[in-house]
Amino acid sequence: MVKHEFQTEVNDLLNLMIHSLYSNKEIFLRELISNASDALDKLNYLCLTDEKYKSINYTPKISLSINKDAKTLTISDTGIGMDENDLINNLGTIARSGTKGFLSSMSGDAKKDSSLIGQFGVGFYSAFMVANKIDVISRKALSDKAYKWSSDAKSYDIEEASKDGFGTDIVLHLSDDEFNDDFRIESIVKKYSNHIPYPIFMYKNEWIEPKEGEKEGHNEIKNSQINKASALWRLPKSSLKDSDYNEFYKQISHDSSDPLFHIHTKAEGKIEYTTLFYVPSVEPFDLFRVDYQSGVKLYVKRVFITDDAKELLPPYLRFVRGVMDVEDLPLNVSREILQENRILATVKDQSVKKILTELEKMLNNDREKYMKFYSLFGKVLKEGLYGFSANKDELLNLCLFKSSLKDGFISLKEYKANMQKDQKSIYYISGKNEAMLRNSPLLESFKKQGIEVLICDEEIDTIVMPMVYEFDKTPIKAINNSDINDEIKNDEKIDETAHAGLIVKIKEALKDEVKDVKLSNRLSDSAACLIYDKNDPDYAMQMMFKQMGQEAPSVKPILEINPNHQIFTKLEANELMVNDISNLLLNMAKISEGIPVENPTEFAKKLTNIMIKAL
Ligand code: ADP
Ligand code: MG
C-alpha cells in the first residue's frame, strides 16, 4: 500500500466541499454517474474503432447498490477503467487549467458555489460531501491488474486489488444518512440522469407479498433498471415535454437552472442529422475565458465522439449547449476531419442558421424573453460581426442598440422604420460612457433635426461597429467621422471664405495636435468638437489597439468649430489671444468626448489667465 498526498489545489477544494458546500449535496450522484457514462462512452468508442478492443465482451451498464448496515453506496460501471497512473492523475490532481480557476471564483454563497462544481469538472471530489471515506476499485480495459484507491479526503492510498471484469466500482462510506436510502437515490437518478444513454440498474430490497400457502412476506434483493436510458434527442418531439427537455439540459450542462429555450431539429434528406440545442438562462462561468469549454457534444449514429470540439459552432455561439448527432460520418473522426469534413461543415452551417432564425423569431414574438437572452449573450453575439464572418446580416438583425431618441433598446429594423425621408445612413456614436455619449456635442445637429442616433456604449462596439458597413443596403456610419459631413443638414449655410483668415491662425496654433481645423455644421450650442478623417481610427479604437498591445499609428483628430458661436465671432474681432483660446477649445472638445487632456497643468494655467482677464 502506498500513501500519496493530494495536490494542494485538491486539498483546498476538498476542504471547501466538506466545510462550505452543503446546500445541494445530491449532485454528487449526478457527477459520479456522469463519470461512469463518460467511461462507458470511451470504451464504446474504442470497441467500435480499435481492433485491439474488438474482442472485449462489452455490456455497457451502470449499477447502484446500497448496503444499509455497512452504510455504503456503490456506483459501478463497465467502462474504460483506470490503471495506477490514471488513478493518481485523475483522482489526485486537478488537471484542467480552467478548473483551477474554480477555487478563485468561489463566491462564498454555498448554493451558487455548489452549482458551479459540475461546470468546473471537479465532479468526482463532490462525493466527499456525503462520504467520509471513498474506495475506488478499478481495472482498465485490456489490463489484467486491478487497483484500489482509498481516501479519507486528507490523503490517499493505492494498492493492488482484484476485480472481475473491466470498469470501476466507487464505494462511498456515507457520512450522511440521508443517502442511505433506496428511494432517495432512485429519485436523484431520475431527476438528473434519466437520459444517460446507458442503463442504470439498482439493487433494491423489495417487499414480496406472501404467496398462497405462505404465512409472511419477505424482503428480496431485486435488480431493476431505473432510468430511461434513451438518447433523448432521438425521441420524437411530440413525445417530449418541456420538463423532459429541461431535465436533459441539466444532465449535459451541469447547470442547475432551467434553460431559456431549446431548439430540437431532425434533418432528413441529403444529410441526415439530429440536433438539440439549448440556450442557458445563466452565464456559463467560462464564457469570457480563452480556454472556455465547448458546450456541444458530437455524436455519430448515437455514438459519443467528443465534447471538446470548439469548431462545431462559431465562437459567437459558444454559450449554446447541446448535442449534434450526425449519420454519415465515420466513427473515427479525427481533428482534421472535424475541421475539413464537408458533411459536418453543412451540419454546422445549417445549425447556425437554425439557431439564428429561432432567435429572430423570439425577437419578433417574445420581446421580453429576447431581452433576457440579449442581456446575457448579446455581447457574445456581436463578436460575430468582426471581420468578414458569414451570417453578418442575420446577426445584425439580432443586435439591439440604445437610442438617442428613446429609452430601452431598438433593432436596426426598428431604426430604419423610424428614419427620416431623406436620411441616407444609419448613424451611431460609440464610446465607453453612456452619459457622455448622450451629451456629446456631436449629437447636437441630429437632436435638432430629430434624427435618431444609436448609442453604442459597449466595449465590443468600438471594434465591430466600424466593420459593419451597412444594414439592409443602408450604410452605417459613425457621427464622429468626416465621412458624413455632407449628410448633415443645417439651416444656415456656412460661408467658408468669410472666416478663412482666422481658421488659418487656429490651424497654425494647433498644428502639432490636429490634422485639420474646419468650420462645422454639426454644432448648435457647443463651440467646438472633434471628428476623425474618413479612414482614421477614432480615439476609442486607438485605445482598443493599445489595450490589445498593438502599435497603433497615433492619429490626430480634426477640430471643428461652430462658426455661429459667440466665442468665434469675438475671437475674430480680437485675435490677440488666438493661441491660448485655440488650445482651450481643443482641450474642451477633448474633455466632452472623454479624452484626457495631454497637459492638464498648462490647460489650467491658460484657463486661469482667461478667467483673470474676464474678471
Ligand atoms: P471530469 O469528469 O470533468 O473530468 P471529474 O472530477 O468528475 O472531472 O473526474 C476526474 C477524472 O477521473 C475523469 O476525467 C476521469 O478521467 C476519471 N474518472 C472518474 N470517474 C471515472 C470512472 N468511473 N471511470 C473511469 N475514469 C473515471
Ligand atoms: Mg465528471
TrEMBL record:
Listed GO MF terms: ATP binding; ATP hydrolysis activity; ATP-dependent protein folding chaperone; unfolded protein binding
**Which parts of the sequence are annotated with region: C?**
544-615
Transmembrane region(s)? none
The record's section on Pfam families has:
HATPase_c_3, HSP90
Q: Which UniProt keywords apply?
A: ATP-binding, Chaperone, Cytoplasm, Nucleotide-binding, Stress response
Could you tell me which SUPFAM superfamilies the record lists for this protein? ATPase domain of HSP90 chaperone/DNA topoisomerase II/histidine kinase (SSF55874), HSP90 C-terminal domain (SSF110942), Ribosomal protein S5 domain 2-like (SSF54211)
Name the CDD domains on file.
Answer: HATPase_Hsp90-like (cd16927)
Annotated localization: Cytoplasm
The region called A is annotated at 1-335
- GO CC terms in record: cytoplasm
Query: InterPro entries in the record, alphabetically?
Result: HATPase_C_sf, HATPase_dom, Heat_shock_protein_90_CS, HSP90_C, Hsp90_fam, Hsp90_N, Ribosomal_Su5_D2-typ_SF
The UniProt record gives the binding positions of ATP as 31, 35, 77, 82, 90, 97-98, 119-124, 168, 335
- Report domain Histidine kinase/HSP90-like ATPase positions: 24-178
Family (UniProt)? Belongs to the heat shock protein 90 family.
Q: Outline the subunit composition.
A: Homodimer.
Q: In UniProt terms, what function does this protein have?
A: Molecular chaperone. Has ATPase activity.
Name assigned to this protein: Chaperone protein HtpG
State the organism named in the record: Campylobacter iguaniorum
- Gene symbol of the encoding locus: htpG
